[in-house]
Amino acid sequence: MGCGPQKIATVFLRLAPAMDTFDAIYQRRSIKHYDPAHRMTEEEIQKLMDSALQSPTSFNIQHWRFVLVRDNALRQELKGAAFGQNQVTDASILLILTADVKSFEKAPERYWANAPAETTAMMVKMLVGIYDGKEQLQRDEAMRSLGIAAQTIMLAAKALGYDTCPMVGYNPDKVADIINLPEDHVLGMMITVGKAIKEAWPKPGQLPLNEVVIQNRFE
Q1: How far, in Å, CA of 88 to CA of 20, rounded?
Q2: Dihedral through CA 52, CA 53, CA 56, CA 58, nearest 10?
Q3: Strands 93-100, 163-167: pairing kind
Q4: CA-CA 20 to 30 A from 122: which of 70, 139, 156, 214?
Q5: What are phi and psi of 96, to 5 degrees?
Q6: Measured distance CA(67)–CA(79) in Å, rounded
Q7: Distances (CA, A) of 200 to 29, 37, 95, 180, 218
């Protein structure tokens, strides 16, 4: 699936124009029912995944690892690990979001490959100093990054005309075993992407802004 920047730019131009960002935000819903016969094109998948790479991460660490599950037999296994939820096999693609919690110590200078040498050295020292030996912080940072990437993927999919469903309803031990998750990685969520054949329920109700937006500080 590798493509250089020039080829990716060409792919973007050939695909249909994306919808307005706010339209994608308000129209995104968690869809459970997909057309099992639909297939996304390689260009669409490429664009979706490249969009995910634009998600921000602390220190530009980019520790997400996106498992794109194409094998039908593997998806059947994952469906079992997800308590039989049909969207795991019916959606056009299945993504499992994981993160390498030890990426801060794996050749971290590559995260600033285009920066001046002194900047790279400074950032590597800071990165290792902040995360080394702090397992809870490493996990927290991974989950923050995966949450941001998940929303990027879902909004990008909606802009491409597809629907999604973020999923945490699965047995993590079984999923980790099925995808051979490395010991220094953590699981985030699954995301299904495809063509909806049944709309989601109406939104059950949003809390008012004055309940969720705190002005300056809690009382």
Answers
A1: 28
A2: 130
A3: unpaired
A4: 139
A5: -115, 120
A6: 15
A7: 7, 20, 20, 33, 35
